[in-house]
Amino acid sequence: MKIGIIGATGHVGHFLTEEALRRGHEVVGIVRHVPETAEPNLHFLNKDLFNLTTEDVQDFDALISAYNAPANEEPLHLEAMKHLVEILAGTNVRLLVVGGAGSLYVDNKLEQRLFETDNFPDDFKPTAANMSKGLDYLRNVENIRWTYLSPSKDFLVNGARTGHYKVGQEQLLISKYGKSEISMADYAIAVLDEIETPQHQQQRYTVCMV
């Protein structure tokens, strides 16, 4: 498949790029700054997300957004979602969004989200709240094919690539070790599994270590 990855050189984007290339897909990294060195067989589109057009993305089988708004500009999460929906409307391109864990529910009645709990760090609340708004917007969209994948509470840059994960929908998951965590490497595996074998179209879901 031909896969575009917005933010391909970021933390999560790096693992997504590696996983997609490992599986033999054609990958285009969509970045504002092209690095001097990069993975072999990785192509780049040097463009800001908000400047992307339908023509830029219409040939992709899937477009992954690993966009993360800068500090103090968190409302851009919603604006980015709106822009992606606008340029993908009417195409056959699947949108896969690297979501946040903050919007996952921590109760069985689905009334309280993680970022609304007392122990959630204040520094991360603006990002979590605005990413949640982006998800709410996406849920009401009918003219594109989308999937939103939330990681566990602890999203580990240096976690192991185990190749195993368990899947949930709207609630925060806990592993058999009592932890809510997923490595970025295993998260990338989950994203590519979903691209290759769609199971969660027009849905948000989440993954956690087993």
TrEMBL record:
Residues 7-194 form the NAD(P)-binding domain. The lineage of its organism: Bacteria, Bacillati, Bacillota, Bacilli, Lactobacillales. Coiled coil: none annotated. This is NAD(P)-dependent oxidoreductase. SUPFAM superfamilies: NAD(P)-binding Rossmann-fold domains. Pfam families: NAD_binding_10.
